[in-house]
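Both lines are quoted verbatim for reference:

——
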Amino acid sequence: MSDRLDYIPEDVLEEVLEAEKTIYPRQRRRMKPYPSSRDVAEAVVEAARSFVGHPEEFPDYVLEILAEKGFDVRHVTVKRIWRTYENLVRKGVIGDRLGVLYTD
């Protein structure tokens, strides 16, 4: 009798393993990537081209763009967005469409 219990047909074993995957799904989710400086700069350029509104709302718009691209934006600060915006304006990549920079 123990001989029958020791043998498990391959097809039955595969069915059981597949059923376990649906019953016990993996709890771990894949983490979203953190945006690099280049990703933030590209989002700022894209936002500067299409943003309409008050400058206070600009960082939120940039964060929305980054989130839509699949990035984790929890640690992207408003200061980083404005610093990137200022650097891009000073280098001539984009114009100061928001009118927030003081120029001599």
Observations:
- The chain has a mean pLDDT of 86.
- The chain is about 55% helix and 0% strand.
- Helices lie at 2-6, 10-23, 37-50, 58-68, 78-90.
